[in-house]
Design a protein that fits this description.
This protein is mainly α and about 260 residues long. It has 8 helices and 2 strands, in the order αααααααββα.
């Protein structure tokens, strides 16, 4: 790893409100392509920033999450291919790892006054741990993620269980290395294949609909969070104004009392 990459990693470990000033200071200390690269670094939002802190400051929990996600994905693939797999146990272990990672993220964010959404954290941790490819630069996430759903297993074909054979329903006989036909292989009825394909397509449509709903919910949560932050800021301004007015009132009463004496 280059010295610059190490300094960039340090940047993503800083408190979120110090990211922009730290990035600008780092860019000013560089020239040419290095300076341009640093200036182009995106500031994380609060959820990915908290996820990054788990990677940097609670690596054991992060590693458990990634390993449990890999085991769950392996079990899902095995089940789709018709091989023995305990998907339920792998799923339970993965859910516990996600819960642990969320708790660590909330703990690490608290001292900075940040309150990332637990649901958004869980979805981002799930997406990270079930991805088919590890992130190019772990610890530098800049945006919240959504779990991929069925498309994460794209390219896999579920194994079709053989159904009752129909008379005369055959595949072309296979041949061995010597060109000798080895016999006929019976196929399941067409109606079974059609039904299973229809069920798979329906599952894909449901997964896509759920993904759209999740994205819509995330947008609504983000909008609501921004509204809460604006209201809290307005409350702080109003409270400060009230406290100043109250202090001025008390001071005016004190002066009046002094004059009466």
């Amino acid at each position: 790893m280059s010295v610059l990459d190490t300094r960039i990693d340090d940047l993503y470990q800083q408190p979120l409100n110090e990211f922009t000033s730290g990035r600008n200071a780092l860019a000013k200390s560089l020239t040419g392509a290095d300076a341009q690269r640093v200036r182009a670094l995106a500031k994380p939002t609060v959820v990915p920033w908290a996820v990054n802190q788990v990677y940097w400051r609670a690596r054991a929990a992060y590693d458990r999450l990634m390993k449990s996600g890999e085991r769950l994905r392996t079990a899902q693939i095995a089940a789709l291919e018709g091989r023995p797999a305990d998907v339920r146990a792998a799923g339970e272990t993965h859910r516990r790892a996600i819960a642990e990672a969320v708790a660590e993220a909330e703990r690490l964010a608290a001292p900075a006054g940040s309150k990332p959404s637990p649901d958004a954290l869980a979805r981002t941790f799930e997406a990270l741990s079930l991805a088919t490819k590890a992130p190019d630069a772990p610890g530098r996430l800049t945006g919240a993620l959504q779990p991929a759903g069925f498309e994460a297993l794209a390219g896999l074909t579920p194994k079709v269980s053989p159904g009752p054979a129909k008379a005369g329903h055959y595949r072309r006989p296979a041949e061995n290395a010597h060109g000798t036909r080895t016999g006929r292989v019976r196929l399941p009825p067409d109606r079974d294949l059609k039904r299973e394909r229809a069920e798979a397509e329906a599952a894909r449509v449901r997964a896509a609909a759920l993904a759209r709903q999740a994205r819509k919910r995330d947008a609504e949560l983000e909008s609501a969070g921004a509204a809460v932050e604006r209201a809290e800021a307005a409350e702080r301004v109003a409270r400060a104004s009230w406290e100043r007015a109250h202090d001025e009132l008390l001071e005016a009463r004190r002066r009046r009392s002094d004059l009466k004496v």
